[in-house]
Each structure stands twice: as C-alpha cells, then as structure tokens.
UniProtKB/TrEMBL annotation:
Role played: Repressor involved in choline regulation of the bet genes. Repressor involved in the biosynthesis of the osmoprotectant glycine betaine. It represses transcription of the choline transporter BetT and the genes of BetAB involved in the synthesis of glycine betaine.
The entry's keywords: DNA-binding, Repressor, Transcription, Transcription regulation
Gene: betI
Entry keyword annotation includes Lyase: no
Protein name per its UniProtKB record: HTH-type transcriptional regulator BetI
GO biological process: glycine betaine biosynthetic process from choline; negative regulation of DNA-templated transcription
Pathway: Amine and polyamine biosynthesis; betaine biosynthesis via choline pathway [regulation]
Source organism of this protein record: Ectopseudomonas chengduensis
Single GO MF descriptor: DNA-binding transcription factor activity
Length: 196
C-alpha cells in the first residue's frame, strides 16, 4: 500500500524525470523504462499514476502550462500600474520566463506540439493554451483599441511570442530572452500607438 501523501511527490518526481528524459534523448526515445530509471522507480509506478506514456506527457504539459500561468500571474500581480501596456509586458515576460525557455522545457514543448496534432487530449490542451494567451492579450488591447483592432493586435502579438520562442528553441543556442522581449515590446508599442 502506498504511503499517505506520496502521490504528489511521486507525480512531481516522474514529471521532472520526463522533462530530463526528453531533454536527453527526445520524446520518441524517452521510453517508460528510461523515465522510470531516471526517476529511480519501477515502470509500474508510471502506469499506476499516469496509465501510459501519453498520460505522463499530458501531465508534464499541464505542469509546464501551470508554470507559464504562474509566471505570467506573478508578474501581473506585482504590477505597480494597471495599464494595458504594463499587463501586456507582463504577459510577454511570463512567456519568456526561465521555466519556459530552459532546454528541457523547450524540447518538451516542441514534442508536445508535434504530438498534439495526433492525440485529441493533447490537442485540447494546446487549444486551451492558445485561447488563454489570445484572450488575455485581446482583453488588454481592447481596453485601448476597438475590438477588431484589439483582435488583430492580439493575434499578431501571440504569433510573435510563439515565433520568437520557436526560433529560439530551434537555434541550438541559449535563448536570448532580452532580445525576444525587445522585439515583442516594439510590436506592442506599435499597436498601442494606434490608440492615440
């Protein structure tokens, strides 16, 4: 019988091992046995908590999405002003948070995006993630722009954030967070200047 309170610890341990495995060998070669070995547990523990590798990938992506939400939320709560620009910059910064641009996180996001095209549960997660970003961006832009312009600006900024992140992930070099922020801020200022 498992010890009381072990489930959250075990789940976190297995998610961390999954991130490490994907970083080391990629999603295709990150077998249940490999992940279990990194976590120092038996293969059966993964089946017990996640059913299969897809369940573990889904839980790992939920973990990364929660880290993203926490990074954005913390920045927004720390704002000293309630301006759309401040909120939008906080969203940009949260998307380029260390939790999202580390090697393991980036490789896992890339594997998730590829897998989401074939697995309905992962596709749903991806839609939630996309909608959350777009909706939050649009809400802030709409504070100063008409709705059609706010939607346009939000789609552009969401695409820019994803594009900068993707180029950084595929570059093979350390992610240049400062450069990504500067480019995104520049686009943000161009859109907000339309409100004047």
């Amino acid at each position: 019988m498992p010890k009381v309170g072990m489930q959250p610890i075990r789940r976190s341990q297995l998610i961390a091992a999954t991130l490490e495995a994907v970083d080391q060998v990629g999603m295709a070669d990150a077998s249940i046995a490999y992940i279990a070995r990194l976590a120092g547990v038996s293969n059966g523990i993964i089946s017990h908590y996640f059913n299969d590798k897809n369940g573990l990938l889904e839980a790992t992506m939920r973990h990364l999405m929660q880290a993203l939400s926490d990074a954005v939320g913390a920045r927004r709560r720390a704002l000293r002003e309630d301006s759309p620009r401040a909120h939008l910059k906080a969203m940009i910064d949260g998307n380029f948070d260390d939790s999202q641009v580390s090697g393991p996180a980036m490789k896992t996001w890339l594997a998730f995006w590829a897998s989401s095209m074939h697995q309905p549960a992962l596709r749903r997660l991806q839609r939630v993630n996309d909608h959350r970003l777009y909706s939050n961006l649009c809400g802030q832009f709409h504070r100063v722009l008409p709705l059609d312009q706010a939607r346009f600006a939000a789609r552009g900024l969401a695409s820019l954030i994803d594009g900068l992140w993707l180029r950084g992930a595929l570059s093979g070099e350390a992610f240049d967070t400062e450069q990504a922020r500067r480019i995104a801020y520049d686009y943000l200022d161009l859109q907000l200047n339309k409100a004047r």
